[in-house]
Amino acid sequence: MDTIKQLKWRYATKKFNVxxxxxxxxxxLIKQAFNLTATSYxxxxxxxxxxxxQETRQSLLKASFNQKQVVEAxxxxxxxxxxxxxxxxxxxxxxxxxGIRQTSETILxxxxxxxxxxxxxxxxxxxxxxxxxxxxxxxxxxxxxxxVEGIDSCPMEGFIPQEYDRILDLEKQGLKSVLLLPxxxxxxxxxxxxxxxxRRPLNEAVIEL
Length: 209
Fold this sequence. Notes:
By secondary structure, this protein is an alpha+beta fold. The protein is 46% helix and 12% strand.
């Protein structure tokens, strides 16, 4: 697979083929890619909500400023963050490390205490922003994986998070919606698919020291 060719192929899809759906195999690949996304400290304070049901997506349309990708795509991915990061979250994370890697408590304790201290010194708003930064890492990862796999996507910030949280009942799960990524396959008549990419010359985008 030519990665650069696929990155040139991808674009923010404006019109999806409503008849063409992702296979379960492809969807599972996307879910695994999300779970393997790098996050700060590996803490994973983000979650992915996969919205398949057409009725549910239709109810989200108004809160998406009537952007049709939400209902036309094969699946709607909603990237969410935890509404807060607690000491219990951090302790559970380090228990998981200990169980999987068999790392000794002597080694883990100072790292755990340092992370607890750092998060405790942040306000709730700062912790939410910290988690939102991780959500953007996940978005970039998912878009790249989609491109490599020949799956179309459209990253979206233009929606009303509070309405999404209400309709998807995210508050009860301790989550807040941050980003959307409709995924599927482009419609043949999406004129945006034929547009040439507009990017800076590489020597203006990258500085080598």
